[in-house]
Each structure stands twice: as structure tokens, then as C-alpha cells.
Amino acid sequence: MKKQQEKGFLVLEILIAGLILTASIAATMYLFQLGYGYLEKTRLSNVLSSKLIQAGGLFKTLELDRESGTEDIGDGVKLKWKSQLLGTSISKSGGGGSTIQFAYELFIYRVDFTMLYQGMDRDYQINVFRYKSSFSNTNKKMPS
Questions:
Q1: How many CB atoms lie within 10 A of CB 91?
Q2: What is the CA radius of gyration of the chain?
Q3: Which of 59, 114, 118, 141 has the fewest beta carbons under 10 Å from its own?
């Protein structure tokens, strides 16, 4: 009689072990899904971060007087920017009745930009220093 009761407990133990195994497999699959999601976000963030130096160099060549624009900086990364002139240098200075003409006019711009890549975007801000010559070249070549 004792043997018949033990067979019933064996089936019940197998069912409980199966439920525990199923729950652990489901939890493990969920954790792998989370891990792959975070790995993909990290990859996208690394692509955007690798383009920051290129974006900084691009601002040296852009016409910031346009005030805004969109640029493609490669590998599917888009750059949207907006500039604001913060200040310029005073081209003439004088003291005691004398006037000095500086050789260069200085400009500083604040540029707010967003980098976009496959649904991920990052916002940044940079100050860009520019200069231009205050004197124009008056030496013109005469036709020969």
C-alpha cells in the first residue's frame, strides 16, 4: 500500500519540476531579450559618438550665417543644426583721439545640434570661433 502512494507523489514532483523549469526558461529568454535591446542601443550610441569629431570639424566649414541646416555626415547619420551669433569684436579702438584698425574681425557662435541615427537622437551644443580679415586686398593685377 505504501508503494501506490509513492507513485502519486512522483508524478506530482515531476509536474512541479516541469513548472519550475518552464518558468526559469521563460525568465532567461526575457533577460536575453533585454540584453539584446540594450546592446543595440549601445551600438547606436557608439555610432553617434564616433561622429562627434566629424561634426565639430564640419562646423568649421559651414556658413553659420544661414542660422540652421541639415547635413548628412555619412553612415546614415543626419545632423540638424541651428546657430546663433553670440558676439563680434569691435573693429576699431581708440584712446586719446587715436584710432586703431584691427586686422581681423572676430565672431563667436553658439551652435545647437542634434545627431539622428536609426530612430535615436542626441542633442549637443558647441561654441564656434570664427574670424575674417578686416582689410580687403586692393592690389589688383593689371592685364598685360
A1: 13
A2: 33
A3: 141
